[in-house]
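Model the whole thing, not chain by chain.
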Amino acid sequence: MTQKNRLSWMIGGPQGSGINASAEVFAKACSRAGLHVFANIEYHSNIMGKHSFYRVRVSEEPIRSHQDSADILVALDQETLAGDGDHRRWATHYGHLVDVAQGGGVVYDSEIAFDPKLSGRDDLRFYPVPFLEIIAAALGEVGKGDQARRYEIMKNTVGLGASLALCDYPFDLVAQVILDGFKGKRAEVGQLNVRAAKLAFDHVRTHFGEDFPYTLKPHGRPKARLLAKGYEVHAIAKLRAGCAFQTYYPISPATDESVFLEQNQRDFNLLVVQCEDEIASINMAVGAAHMGVRASTATSGPGFALMVEGIGLAAITEAPGPVLVMYQRGGPSTGLPTRQEQADLQFVLHPAHGDFPHVVVAPGDHHECFEDTFSAFNWAERFQLPVIVLSDKMLASSLATIDELKLLDGTIDRGERYGENGTHEYLRYALTPDGISARSRPGLRGGQFWATSDEHDPDGHITEGVEMRTTMMRKRMGKLDSVAEYIPSARKLALHGPEGADLTVVGWGSTKGAILDALAVLEEDGASVNFLQIRLMRPFPAREVSEILGRAKRTVAIEENYGGQLAQLIQEHTGARIDERILKYDGRPFSEDEVVTSLRRVLAGEKALAVMTHVR
Amino acid sequence: MSVDVKRTVKDFKSDLPNDWCPGCGDFGILSSIQMAFASLKLDPDRIAVFSGVGCSGKTPHYLKTYGFHTLHGRVLPVATGARLVNSGVTVLAVGGDGDGYGIGAGYFVNSGRRNVDFAYIVFNNSVYGLTKGQASPTLAKGKKTKSMPEQSIQDGINPIAMAIASGYTFIARGYALDPKHLSMLIARAIEHRGSALLDVLQTCPTYNDLYTKEWYDGAGLPEKRSRLYKMEDTGFDGVVKDPTDHEENIAKKAAAVVKSYETDPIPIGVYYQIALPTYEDMLVQRIPALAERPLVEQDLFQRDVTPLLEAMR
């Protein structure tokens, strides 16, 4: 029995069975009731049939990651309980019973051939529920009782309704979220789902008594929060920043952002173009930026691999953008299309041939996704270079509660622009002390210029002269110093936790949530651990990182890649070697528990390694 | 966009010294572009010329307009992105045949699907000039220029037929050394609303000793005649009169494709033209505000995203 007002809930089923719908309904019902929510999905690169599962973690306290153990598991199919070892030569997973917390509850469809006695978990409470019978009963109320098979998709709602009984959560809060999801002509379907969920809720109450393992209560004083996925936050930041033009080529897990913007383009006058490939995407965005609007694109590793020449083009022509949100997934090549990895840091830092300036920033949570994407447009225009916001699958698809006011921050900085009233000759690439020349755009009176992918003179015509080549290289590369001066230290990195800790964790990107949550657990252990989060990757805050690492007693990098790409980057820029590395490249994000267990080993003086709970 | 002022070719000449080979066919195309701009009385501040990479890629530098010398094969995506955010500017794209039909073939085809309003001039000389004369995608099988170590063992593509299949709404072919005719075609391509392909047969005196001025003039033929003829002189009319008439459209497309396979003499002039809604027209249906002013002139900053946030509650 948990003492605190918190719960980890999990639903598993085949793709296409709607587990995301019920998980997101539950998440929203909790968010509306003032609870903090962190929810994330694991799914195959597949449309129908393969196993997927969704975790929803809820708490009265702030939470930023998922846990390995679920208090309640809802299983829509056999595979969720037992894994796929029975029909695959090499099992993908072994089922989620192992993930259920001591004494936890398992709701499953009683049609599944499953014997709890053989589960090996006599500590769990099992709740077989006749999903289809309940759907038939709900349909029966509107005279469609014989059509249950056609409404099998409602099983996820039945599972949700049944599980609510186990944690005693107010049913009405959930019912309202379901109804809100079915507007207009579909309102009837919403009613049907509420009926099915309620019947399931009542079924559990009636058949399994009143002794339930958990109690989850709405917050006493609900605070209005938003529940958003990372890709939505990236998209909203683009809208707030005044992005006019977004290009994309479909690719997981980046597509969602572009489709979200496309769905809203009419209301916000944001033009979204679906391109023939990523080479077209980046080059259209460069063309739009050249024409003077805030332009952006979004992609993942395989797409970015095609885009690289466009990054070089934007850099040498000093285009004011584009902003590129790069959603990492498991690589190399097609790799793990729908899974998590942080293995593209070194790639986005070195995307194209030659030396050129660009900015790379890696947000660590939803709020930072907003800040960094919003600022990226300011940096792109002010310093006239491409900016990469390095996100990932974990951030893109996880749902988190965020303080809405923080989403509205931000001022617009368009940098120095050519004014049509100029009296002397305009030179697009005029040499200036800080390397920044006022930018014009086609269509302006007297602002004519040439842009070229070749090396060029201040007027933009091609040159191969040694003097001008050297000067122009210094002009462009020197902008990175200006960027470094301009971006406040707090946006470059953060030291979380106590100064002078015994152990300093070094990390970046979406592992922030799991690391912070783990630090809180370790603090209860009495351990002294802090966390250096590096956010600005280029220009790299070498001085600040050196200072912090210089004071650190012992360091350990936590990253989701094979070699420790941030640790390598730190060593490259500061000479400091990170003592230990906890590395994971299984395509899954670190859970709080994995970070806790892995760090406990390091604290105990054992060899650092990522302790992965799913590996047996 | 045209203003009631006198424009001359000089208004469109930049003062940059030209570094093309002496006698290059590109000179004929460059002056034809300048003549077309002057004849249309375009405002140089409201023209944006985009180019790919190669000898032809330098064209914008010789024009006194806004110029963007982009990447090899990517001129159309860059020009498309630029055009879509600023429909107040005339967009001209130029590039070589290797650039457009080889490395840029995917963009050539997909641009035809969109019908964005730009004119695209391909300098077609059957060789890669700036890398010293390798076979380009338009060189036919069995041909060998003096710059090639071996004859080509792959066939050339037919850009006119490819443009028809891709959906270009204006398709023409000109000859670099006939500036009067060529400038007329360029002006028509610019005036056309939609994607216009103008394939220009261009001589490369340095590397292509097959398709020289003399060859086009008829050298080696038993009778005295040119290897080119103007389709309009024979009464050919590729313009679709009624764009809603499917049968007429198909017939005109088929006639253009048939014409495009004539090799001796080679037809020049307008193969096909149809007035269809442009991509920009279609965008106005999605984003009505585009009818009022182009994106580049809209204030889109600090948008009110309240409705989106409400949905997240």
